[in-house]
Amino acid sequence: MNSALKSRLRLELRARRQSLSKDQQTVAAKQLMQRLIRLPAFREARHIAAYIASDGEISPAPLLRYAGLNSKHCYLPKISRCASSNSMAFYPYHHRQKLISNRYGIGEPSGLHRRPQAPHKLDVVLLPLTGFDKEGRRLGMGGGYYDRAFAFKRNKKMRKPIMIGLAHHCQEVNTLPSDGWDIPLDFIVTDRQVIKTKHR
Predict the structure, then answer these.
(1) If you average pLDDT over residues 24-45, what whole number do you get?
(2) Which of 45, 85, 87, 184 is in the most buried spot, having the most CB atoms within 10 Å?
(3) Which pTM value belongs to this model?
(4) How many domains does one find in the chain?
(5) What CATH number has the domain bearing residue 41?
């Protein structure tokens, strides 16, 4: 039942964010950055993982530029080239760096001559959401990449990295189904609000 409901919600919520104009996306990305840079978890972080927006996702690009100019180390996810692996690693990134498209058409570092950063050594992870509720439950795209990479976070003693889900405000729903393998979020930040979850 959860699987069917999540699939239906993904279609609906992706349509919401895809309907935003380029100007709305630009404004939302700037508003998102302003909220994030005031968050103590972000200010104190030295090693930050983010993502390249696609499919109408809210963009952390302005934040990545800001972070790079403020002596923070940034990383982007790179998925395994082996289709059967479904694993993800985090490689160093600079906002002027050229990216290559992965099998989903999303830009990622080449990984050549660089070593990935271990997920447990990141201070903050900014991850894209397809949907969220105020209880801190999240809906991703269904690939499970973040759930696998940060499975150790299900141990509540693991404080780092701090997991921050990013989304447009229009992606909020009243309640979401959850599964045992879902990685809990510490915060959800949109262009309009910061939600500190009960998990936190």
Answers:
(1) 97
(2) 45
(3) 0.92
(4) 1
(5) 3.40.50.10420
